[in-house]
Amino acid sequence: MELSQIDELEKLKGQLSSLHSELTALSKKSPNDAVNTFKLKFVNITVANCNAFLGDKYKPFDDFEQFDSDEAPSNSDLTFIISQYMQALEKFRSDNIYLDTYSGNKWYYRTEGEGITVRAAPPAKLKE
């Protein structure tokens, strides 16, 4: 991975995590209520950025590009889709990191170029 890809991945993960937290809270209170257009705009921007980053190989749904604002998706709809994108980004990240046993079992991103190392968290499925 290039450093710019790592930065973009970390940015998207943070945005999705924040959106997921907000939407989960709304979904618990009123799961079937429609999301307002202001929030939907930013969800769609983030989903579009994720689609561009993930490409066809990692994109969670082949036929999903963004939410239609005319259909007024519910809080639970958005929560469902955002969680799928979080999993897709984690799969991408997990496929692009490795455990370096020579450095004391630390995780690193697979980077292009010699001498470039970027620490990474372990894959989510390995966390306790």
Task: Explain what you see.
- With 128 residues, this protein is mainly alpha-helical.
- It has one domain (3-126).
- The chain has 3 helices and 3 strands.
- It has helices spanning 3-29, 37-58, 75-95; strands at 97-100, 106-109, 119-120.
Kindly report how far apart the N and C termini lie: 27 Å
Q: Measured on Cα atoms, how large is the radius of gyration?
A: 17 Å
Main-sheet strand order equals 1-2-3
- Annotation, overall tally of beta strands: 3
What brief labels describe this structure?
mainly alpha; three-stranded antiparallel sheet; 3 strands; 128 residues; 3 helices
Summarize the structure.
The protein is mainly α. It has one domain (about 5-125).
SSE layout and pairing:
Layout: H1 3-29, H2 37-58, H3 75-95, E1 97-100, E2 106-109, E3 119-120
Antiparallel strand pairs: 1-2, 2-3
